[in-house]
Specification:
This protein is an alpha/beta fold. 40% of the residues lie in helices and 14% in strands. It starts with a helix and ends with a helix. Bound molecules: 4'-deoxy-4'-aminopyridoxal-5'-phosphate.
Amino acid sequence: MNAIMSGAPPRAAPAVSDLRPEAAGLPESGIVRVVNHGRGRQGLIPLWVGEGALPTPSFIRDEAVRSLAAGETFYTHQRGVPETREAITRYMTRHYGGAGSTGFAPDRFFVAAGGMHALQMALRMVLGPGDQAIIPTPAWPNFKGATLALGAEPVEVALDYAPSGWRLDFDRLAAAVTPRTRALLVNTPANPTGWTASFDDLRGLLALARRHGLWIVADEIYGRFVHEGERAPSFHDIADPDDRVMWIQTLSKNWAMTGLRVGWLEAPPAFGQTIENLVQYSTSGVPTPNQRAAAAALDHGEDFIAFQRARCAAARAILCEGLSRAGGFDFAPPPGAFYLFLRPHGVADCAATAIELVDYAGVGLAPGSAFGPGGDGFLRLCYARPAEEIEEAVRRLIAWSKAR
Ligand code: PMP
């Protein structure tokens, strides 16, 4: 029977143009293109993605194994298993519960499938079609992608580069606010620049949000990776319970757990049922074994963080000293996170340069253009790696730069 006889519309092969524009229009990650180009290359030093070379420590993995062996394979609590939420509360109280803190209770914390899922739920609660979210850039591309996926509009505001450090221009930020602005996405310490908000920066951002009734979505996942001090300044240090702030957190970086997909959203307890519903209608919960592993990391993971911080400090010193001695590269020594955002002199197209570096230097870096306005000409290098590897990467970068 043909289409006319059946009364059904004529069929054509499914095309992307059949899809909702919010999905079909999502940009491909500019990092993935370089990774695809260099994947499997012999001898390449891969510093392009945001993770270290170490697997999850065994004391954390063992908890997941124990849980699996015990048959914890059922549907679980949408907000997270109670023991994990209690471990999050203890961790937050230890590290963020200083003077002035309003205290923490488990009803503020919602376990998510990584920081990305926490971000997606936070944005889902405050952004819809026609709304705008302000994103200081260069930024992790997922802030823009997650905003676009909701049919909302990212408004990117570039930070200024200076050799002494990236700077947020508050006049530019304030000028970007419109009647449609709903949220301010603040990532501190920042991927990829390492920009780390000072207390004054945080106060300025909070004042702007209060003035316009905006939500601050605070991504403080690199808060423990700081060059000086025990942790970075946090909105926890200055916000009142009535402020419109939600926090994104993850186990991914602190405890080398990127593949286990555990993070959390911190939000006003009044949103509990709404967040529970969002979990139900997206992932329906994070696997219990992974949540058990997370609880072990939070309760017993300080030595591993200290190890990672020391490794990052050594790598940062090798990079900053080596590259500034050689010359030919602009960069601001990063106060936080574990990325060096560097600009080789004379680069016209950093995406092409990233490919060139794979082919001729054997170093995999992410092109700065993937991180939005302000990133052009730069390359991101993740230095959460062993010193020997970073030393070799510096040698290769310098040789490449001198041969050009
Ligand atoms: N925020 C920032 C700034 C990140 O760089 C990342 C990971 N690259 C995340 C959140 C999310 O991490 P995950 O989803 O692995 O927990």
